[in-house]
Structures are given as structure tokens and as C-alpha cells.
Design a protein that fits this description.
Elements (H helix, E strand, L loop, with lengths): L1 E5 L8 H14 L4 E5 L5 H6 L10 H5 L5 H4 L1 E2 L5 E4 L4 H9 L8 H9 L5 E5 L6 H9 L2 E7 L5 H17 L6 E10 L3 H14 L3 E7 L2 H8 L4 H4 L4 H15 L10 H4 L2 H6 L6 H8 L1
Parallel strand pairs: 1-5, 1-6, 2-4, 2-5, 6-7, 7-8
Antiparallel strand pairs: 3-4
Helix pairs in contact: 1-12, 6-7
The chain binds adenosine-5'-triphosphate and magnesium ion (MG).
Adenosine-5'-triphosphate binds next to helix 1, strand 7 and helix 10.
């Protein structure tokens, strides 16, 4: 099973919106998909369960060894999309987990044991480095990092690079890779263009070609507990997420680890090597 975590420790960068759109889009394209809500805010759960909180068992019970994953997974209104839900009790579970053996690897072990039938798993991460986040990082193959064009921070991405190195070194997940950086909430103005240029100069091959424009449709969709593609399928953000999906699916056959190097590299060197040429071109050259 391919496994993708949507992460960024910066709050409000578009993680949940991206995880929902990716997961629903994968299912729409015929790939049986599991959406894992790893955030005690439970926003992804509420959206996919029509505004209702999830009954136990949820992810917290799985992490504490009180339930098998298969018993906590349930279908959603979207055909082919199941959810492993979260609710506010996940925060307590994360604290309790600290007392348990194997605390960092419980999700990975539970997934291995479950042998789920899904083709892909998409995880919505919280904006904190909690034990739940650590469990996700230990369990997945790749990370997608939404970067809000308005709050882009170089230091935040440097921190991510360190996190990936630490996960590889200390959590035994040596093949974890950065699947890509996604610019979100972009505007058609100079400020967004400058940030996009900076990001592509520094991380060229890692930045998705697709970027998601700021649109009130996203908030309107979430207010109705719908994904943006369900609420406004022809809107600019829905089309952008569909473009992202095409890229993510196309890049699914890469070798593990091949896209982490540019994050480790000197950003100026990445730019000199053709970072501005964009992700697709750099990939073809590399391959
Ligand atoms: N492209 C967009 N245009 C307009 N609003 C957006 C867009 N993407 C996300 N939002 C809104 O921005 C807010 C934050 O988005 P989201 O919940 O996806 O971020 P997050 O990274 O998951 O936040 P948190 O760190 O709190 O989990 C939400 O209210 C969401 O509806
Ligand atoms: Mg979120």
C-alpha cells in the first residue's frame, strides 16, 4: 500500500484540505483509499462523516492497542474511500501512549498486522510533533507538504529536512521521502509570485507544478462538511487538486528516497542545477 502523510508543523497551511482532496480524488479515480485522521481536532473526520463525531473505536484506540485497525476503519459517503477517524480523545491517547512500549511504532505495527485492502493511505497530520505525528512518520513512505503562500517560512522547511533525517536515522524508516511541496492559498499577485520563485529556486524538483489558489469555495465546502471537489467541482481549487493528483499518481513509481536529496542540498546549488525549470523537467532529467 502506498502511504502518504500530509505534514507541516505550521498551523493552517492547508494540510486537512489537501489530505481530504487527495484521498477523495484517489477514490474517485478508482483507487481504494484509506484516509487516516491523525489530528485530535478531527476536522477530516467531521468532513467525511457528514459533521458527526466518530464513535469508538478510533485511531486513539488503535494506538493504545485497544482495537484493531480493521475494526476502527469505516466507509464514507464517497465510494472507495474509507476513514480511520480521530476525535478529541486522540490528544489523551497521545499522552497515555508515552507510558507504553513501542510507543513510536504502534501505527506501523498495526498496519502491518491489518494487511488492509487499500491501494493508498493518506494521513492528515496535526500541526504538532506529538507522539501521534511520530507514529505517522514512522509508518509512511512519503510526505506531502502544503506551504501557505502567505506564511511561507524558510526555517520551517529547514526544520522539516531535519525531521526527515531524524526519522530515517532514529525511527527505522530509512526510505521515507519527501513526495513534494505544494503551494496553497496562492493569489494572482507579486507576493505569491515571489514566494513561488523562491520555493522553486530552493527546492525546484520537489515543488509540485500544481498550486492551489485561495478561494472562498474551500471555506464554503468545509462549512457544509464537503470536499471542495464535491461542493464546487469546476472551481479553481478543485481543478488544482485534480492536477496535483495527476502529479502524485504519476510520481508514485519513483524509487524510495530519490526526492530527498534536493532538500539536503544547498538551495543555491539546486537553483543553479535548474530548479526553476520545475518539477517535471527536473525529474525527467534525473530519471
Ligand atoms: N485554497 C484555499 N483557499 C481558501 N481557504 C483555504 C484554502 N485552503 C485551506 N483554506 C482554509 O484555511 C483554513 C486552514 O486550512 P486547513 O484546515 O486545510 O489547514 P491545516 O494545515 O489542516 O490546519 P491545522 O494546522 O489547524 O490542522 C481552513 O479554514 C480552510 O478552509
Ligand atoms: Mg488540519
Amino acid at each position: 500500500m502506498r502511504s502518504i502523510a500530509v505534514v507541516n508543523l505550521k498551523g493552517g497551511s492547508g494540510k486537512t484540505t489537501t489530505a481530504l482532496s487527495l484521498a477523495a480524488g484517489m477514490a474517485r479515480r478508482g483507487i481504494r483509499t484509506l484516509l487516516v485522521d491523525a489530528d485530535s481536532q478531527g476536522n477530516a473526520t467531521l468532513t467525511m462523516l457528514d459533521g458527526r463525531a466518530a464513535d469508538p473505536p478510533t485511531l486513539g484506540n488503535v494506538l493504545l492497542g485497544q482495537a484493531e485497525i480493521a475494526d476502527a476503519v469505516r466507509p464514507t459517503r464517497i465510494a472507495g474511500l474509507d476513514i480511520l477517524p480521530a476525535d478529541s480523545r486522540l490528544a489523551d491517547a497521545a499522552l497515555l501512549l508515552a507510558e507504553h512500549l513501542g510507543r513510536e511504532h504502534r501505527l506501523r505495527v498495526a498496519l502491518e498486522r491489518a494487511r488492509l485492502p487499500h491501494g493508498v493511505m493518506v494521513v492528515d497530520c496535526p500541526p504538532q510533533m506529538s507522539l501521534v505525528t511520530v507514529n505517522v512518520l514512522a509508518a509512511v513512505g512519503e510526505l506531502i507538504v502544503p506551504v501557505d503562500a502567505g506564511i511561507y517560512s524558510v526555517s520551517g522547511l529547514a526544520q522539516l529536512r531535519q525531521t526527515v533525517a531524524d526519522v530515517r536515522a532514529y525511527l527505522g524508516n530509512a526510505s521515507l521521502r519527501i513526495g513534494g511541496l505544494l503551494l496553497t492559498r496562492t493569489h494572482n499577485n507579486r507576493a505569491t509570485k515571489d514566494i513561488a520563485d523562491q520555493l522553486r529556486a530552493a527546492y525546484g524538483p520537489l515543488v509540485f507544478r500544481a498550486s492551489v489558489p485561495h478561494s472562498v469555495r474551500v471555506e464554503e465546502a468545509h462549512a457544509r462538511n464537503l470536499t471542495v471537489a464535491e461542493f464546487a467541482p469546476t472551481s479553481a481549487p478543485a481543478r488544482a487538486y485534480d492536477d496535483l493528483l495527476t502529479e502524485v499518481i504519476a510520481h508514485g513509481d519513483q524509487q524510495p528516497g530519490d526526492s530527498v536529496a534536493p532538500l539536503d542540498a544547498d538551495p543555491t546549488a539546486a537553483a543553479a542545477a535548474g530548479g526553476r525549470a520545475g518539477r517535471g523537467r527536473a525529474r525527467r532529467r534525473a530519471g
